[in-house]
């Protein structure tokens, strides 16, 4: 039975690298895949999945008003994909995550989503929240904090190098302004929410 997968992590954990490798493995066995990425993320160019280690490939881009189920059905008439790979999954809407679940359930095509779990404020992205609720299989991609512990959070640094506490959830580009940290060091950087909430 096909499943909806969510591979999640913080910044710089290698999500896009793993996606590109998995897609390559399918193609190497003569299987067709469909790759998608958020139109919002155009750091490497629109419709490009790029890894920080230097590998990249073209992909179809999606926006928040795109019906992913209809798009896959249209593609399947010409050449049914053996698997769908979707990068930047945090930018999905809740409805789009339901569409991906329907692709797995009704069309029998596995869907592999890769994305961030939380933003720099420690809050879930809408797409990530829906995937955590609906995905059949959750897989954490691990990276480490400067202390050696598992990094589960990310901070966004301002021009002065200090961690920001507020701002837009999405900021495309500026990868150097993000740092992955363990929860303890994230709290040290932005302030402890449990202490702030009591004042």
TrEMBL record:
<feature type="binding site">
    <location>
        <position position="182"/>
    </location>
    <ligand>
        <name>Zn(2+)</name>
    </ligand>
</feature>
<dbReference type="InterPro" id="IPR027417">
    <property type="entry name" value="P-loop_NTPase"/>
</dbReference>
<dbReference type="GO" id="GO:0071897">
    <property type="term" value="P:DNA biosynthetic process"/>
</dbReference>
<feature type="active site" description="Proton acceptor">
    <location>
        <position position="88"/>
    </location>
</feature>
<dbReference type="InterPro" id="IPR001267">
    <property type="entry name" value="Thymidine_kinase"/>
</dbReference>
<keyword id="KW-0067">ATP-binding</keyword>
<keyword id="KW-0808">Transferase</keyword>
<dbReference type="GO" id="GO:0008270">
    <property type="term" value="F:zinc ion binding"/>
</dbReference>
<dbReference type="GO" id="GO:0005829">
    <property type="term" value="C:cytosol"/>
</dbReference>
<feature type="binding site">
    <location>
        <position position="147"/>
    </location>
    <ligand>
        <name>Zn(2+)</name>
    </ligand>
</feature>
<keyword id="KW-0547">Nucleotide-binding</keyword>
<feature type="binding site">
    <location>
        <position position="178"/>
    </location>
    <ligand>
        <name>substrate</name>
    </ligand>
</feature>
<keyword id="KW-0418">Kinase</keyword>
<dbReference type="GO" id="GO:0005524">
    <property type="term" value="F:ATP binding"/>
</dbReference>
<dbReference type="Pfam" id="PF00265">
    <property type="entry name" value="TK"/>
</dbReference>
<keyword id="KW-0862">Zinc</keyword>
<dbReference type="GO" id="GO:0004797">
    <property type="term" value="F:thymidine kinase activity"/>
</dbReference>
<feature type="binding site">
    <location>
        <position position="145"/>
    </location>
    <ligand>
        <name>Zn(2+)</name>
    </ligand>
</feature>
<comment type="subunit">
    <text>Homotetramer.</text>
</comment>
<comment type="similarity">
    <text>Belongs to the thymidine kinase family.</text>
</comment>
<feature type="binding site">
    <location>
        <begin position="170"/>
        <end position="173"/>
    </location>
    <ligand>
        <name>substrate</name>
    </ligand>
</feature>
<dbReference type="GO" id="GO:0046104">
    <property type="term" value="P:thymidine metabolic process"/>
</dbReference>
<dbReference type="InterPro" id="IPR020633">
    <property type="entry name" value="Thymidine_kinase_CS"/>
</dbReference>
<feature type="binding site">
    <location>
        <begin position="87"/>
        <end position="90"/>
    </location>
    <ligand>
        <name>ATP</name>
    </ligand>
</feature>
<feature type="binding site">
    <location>
        <position position="185"/>
    </location>
    <ligand>
        <name>Zn(2+)</name>
    </ligand>
</feature>
<protein>
    <recommendedName>
        <fullName>Thymidine kinase</fullName>
        <ecNumber>2.7.1.21</ecNumber>
    </recommendedName>
</protein>
<feature type="binding site">
    <location>
        <begin position="9"/>
        <end position="16"/>
    </location>
    <ligand>
        <name>ATP</name>
    </ligand>
</feature>
<keyword id="KW-0963">Cytoplasm</keyword>
<keyword id="KW-0479">Metal-binding</keyword>
<keyword id="KW-0237">DNA synthesis</keyword>
